[in-house]
């Protein structure tokens, strides 16, 4: 039986404003007072996990213990078939210290070369942790293709060059509501909400 989040403050264990905003929108209908780890001045732990789930759990537990509040962390990234699943858990690192995702997208594109396989997936692991060390973890995936050049100024990160399977707009071209309906984060959130928020 999953542990339920009841109400009150919920720390979003991220310093990424785009991610915090997106999670806040997804949690809008619940009795959660969302506050970011950045706002609370919490340190970002080193992401030493070998999987998205391990890194999400590490971040959620660190924030829950530091703030003495329930904390939700996301670890997500882009896995490209032609690159053997890279950048994967290193997706943010490929953007460098300045988080230059235009450069990161070009790096992915350059490494792909002229491969005919443009398949990729976004993966999102969500971990909800409590100060006593209890954690609930859920994973979501959305399949698609890499397109070049990138299209659209919405979303964040690698969104402008990810075309979800069956779609005509990249995540960077979609309105937030359309992206939230099908994204990897939405998939993981649906599982989280069903288990811990209803």
From TrEMBL:
Molecular function per GO: dITP diphosphatase activity; ITP diphosphatase activity; metal ion binding; nucleotide binding; ribonucleoside triphosphate phosphatase activity; XTP diphosphatase activity
Presence of keyword NAD: no
Enzyme class: hydrolase
Keyword Calcium: no
Active site, UniProt feature: 75 (proton acceptor)
Key words, A-Z: Hydrolase, Magnesium, Metal-binding, Nucleotide metabolism, Nucleotide-binding
A single GO BP: nucleotide metabolic process
Binding site for substrate: 14-19, 76, 156-159, 179, 184-185
Cofactor mode of binding and number, as noted: Binds 1 Mg(2+) ion per subunit.
Binding residues annotated for Mg(2+), in chain numbering: 46, 75
EC number of the protein: 3.6.1.66
Transmembrane segments: none
Gene Ontology CC: cytosol
Highest taxon of the lineage: Bacteria
Cofactor: Mg(2+)
Pfam families: Ham1p_like
Catalytic activity, as annotated: XTP + H2O = XMP + diphosphate + H(+); dITP + H2O = dIMP + diphosphate + H(+); ITP + H2O = IMP + diphosphate + H(+)
InterPro entries for the chain: dITP/XTP_pyrophosphatase, ITPase-like_fam, RdgB/HAM1
Its biological purpose: Pyrophosphatase that catalyzes the hydrolysis of nucleoside triphosphates to their monophosphate derivatives, with a high preference for the non-canonical purine nucleotides XTP (xanthosine triphosphate), dITP (deoxyinosine triphosphate) and ITP. Seems to function as a house-cleaning enzyme that removes non-canonical purine nucleotides from the nucleotide pool, thus preventing their incorporation into DNA/RNA and avoiding chromosomal lesions.
PANTHER family tied to this protein: INOSINE TRIPHOSPHATE PYROPHOSPHATASE (PTHR11067:SF9), INOSINE TRIPHOSPHATE PYROPHOSPHATASE/HAM1 PROTEIN (PTHR11067)
Entry's family note: Belongs to the HAM1 NTPase family.
Subunit structure: Homodimer.
Name of the protein described by the UniProt record: dITP/XTP pyrophosphatase
Organism, as annotated: Magnetospirillum gryphiswaldense (strain DSM 6361 / JCM 21280 / NBRC 15271 / MSR-1)
Lineage, top ranks: Bacteria, Pseudomonadati, Pseudomonadota, Alphaproteobacteria, Rhodospirillales
């Amino acid at each position: 039986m999953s542990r339920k989040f009841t109400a009150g403050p919920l720390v979003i264990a991220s310093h990424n404003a785009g991610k915090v905003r997106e999670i806040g929108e997804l949690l809008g209908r619940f009795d959660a007072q969302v506050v970011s780890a950045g706002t609370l001045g919490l340190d970002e732990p080193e992401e030493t996990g070998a999987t998205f789930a391990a890194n999400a759990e590490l971040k959620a537990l660190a924030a829950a213990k530091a703030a003495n509040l329930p904390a939700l962390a996301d670890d997500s990234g882009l896995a490209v078939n032609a690159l053997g699943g890279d950048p994967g858990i290193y997706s943010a690192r490929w953007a460098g210290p300045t988080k230059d995702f235009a450069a990161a997208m070009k790096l992915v594109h350059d490494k792909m070369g002229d491969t005919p396989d443009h398949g990729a997936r976004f993966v999102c692991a969500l971990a909800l942790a409590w100060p006593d060390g209890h954690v609930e973890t859920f994973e979501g995936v959305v399949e698609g293709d890499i397109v070049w050049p990138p299209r659209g100024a919405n979303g964040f990160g690698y969104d402008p060059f990810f075309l979800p399977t069956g779609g005509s707009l990249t995540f960077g071209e979609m309105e937030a509501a359309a992206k939230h309906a099908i994204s990897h984060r939405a998939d993981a959130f649906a599982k989280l909400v069903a288990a811990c928020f209803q």
